[in-house]
Amino acid sequence: MVKAEVSEVKKLYGIKDCTVDRIAGCYINAEKEILSTFSEHFLNKEENEIFKYLDIFKQGLSGKLGKELNTLSFPIGEGNKIGDNQAFLLKLHASGLKDKELLNVFWDRAREAYPLTENALFLLIHNVYDVPGRGNDHFKNMDASDEVYDYISFYICPVKLEDAGLAYNSKNRQFSCKDTRWCVQKPTYSFLFPSFEDRCSDADAITVYTKKTDGSMDNFTADFLGIMPSISPAEQKKMFQTVVEDAISSGGDDIDDTVQIMTGLHERMVESLEDDTADALETTLRVEEILSIAEESGMDSRMVEKLDDGIRNAFKDSPIRTENVINLKNVEFKSEDFVAKVSAELASRVKTDTIKGTRYLMIPLASDKGLDIEGVRVGRKV
Predict the structure, then answer these.
(1) Are residues 111 and 207 part of one domain?
(2) What's the average model confidence in pLDDT over 83-103?
(3) Share in percent of the chain as helix, strand, coil (round to 5)
(4) Coil, strand or helix: which one is 2?
(5) Which domain holds residue 368?
(6) Which residues pair with 195 in a beta bridge?
(7) Are 205 and 240 contained in the same domain?
(8) Considering 175, 209, 225, which residue would you say is the last residue of a domain?
């Protein structure tokens, strides 16, 4: 999915455009015991409840593509046979969430795979969307629609105990004691199946949302969906730092050259995003592009060769998204004695120098912006 397609699906969760026809839920405790389940027509709920649910549905498509949101492909078996997990989801999807036995199997699988020990609400919804056609002017044209997007979506919402305290009672205009209540939180995990690709249904793909990008739900995705998830952004960054460090160290320990290579590498990778569009693929760098940037930044042939081997061994065929492996806003310079964060625009001007036998990191100061130390302005102009 690309940004425009994510936005198109999120718009289905407005109160005026909502076409969600069915909702099912399962509430479990920290011991993974089922406390209650339900399955009903969504629009039969009270209006204030519908609003709360719609907020949950929207949150399940939030975040950045390639970071919190990832479209994953189901593995293909021998003879192009689909796997058991995909086959079960297709069966559940075809039921429109009306088959109680299928729902019970789904709840059992979800709670068995769920890695956390906390109360949680599992939600499933079914929706049918008549995808409007688009003319050359990109405006919707319902008459040109010949695609129906029929899908299910799943959400995991932690349920936490609200603290007791005083609350205002609008009826008697008094503050009174408020009892503790179990309250549903925003979803920490969700998926959309089939995925919405090129404004069409793609049953060979599923779009997964994870609130935390540290890989803590990777095993759930692998066990529950039968798909190995993409490398988490946190792991991508760590891996990229390691292969770059190994490549640079293969060329020597000259700090002057290293500073110039690193700041140049960062600057050119940020520049690669300047023409970013709504298409998430624009932020993905191929290995060849990274190697070209490395050469332009001052890496010699030995370093580039080492970088090439390192990236291919570490990332395999996984996409490398620029915003996952570098900080787009700042460059951090760190030693045992100090930490300095410099804006990405200024980083390429940072130099090193030796003065009276002592090595210095030279950070230019803009003449019209002054300097703050511990929050104290020590100079209006430098």
Answers:
(1) yes
(2) 94
(3) 35, 30, 35
(4) coil
(5) 233-376
(6) 202
(7) no
(8) 225
Rounded to an integer, what distance in angstroms lies between the CA atom of residue 41 and that of residue 262? 57
Label residue 64 exposed, middle or buried (CB < 10 Å: 0-12, 13-18, 19+).
middle
> What's the total number of domains in the chain?
2
Name residue 174's beta-bridge partners.
169
Going by C-beta distance under 8 Å and a sequence separation of 6 or more, which residues neighbour residue 376? none
Answer yes or no: are the C-beta atoms of 144 and 125 closer than 8 Å: no
Identify the domain boundary among 178, 193, 225.
225
- Tens-place pLDDT, residues 138-163: 555 555 567 899 999 999 999 998 88
DSSP secondary structure string for all residues of 147-174: EEEEEEEEEEEEEEEPPPEEEEETTTTE
Return d(Cα 110, Cα 22) in angstroms, integer.
Answer: 19
Reported pTM: 0.78
Tokens of 198: 């090129």
Please tell me whether residues 307 and 265 are part of one structural domain: yes
The region that residue 11 occupies, defined by phi over 0 for left and psi between -120 and 50 for alpha, beta otherwise, is alpha
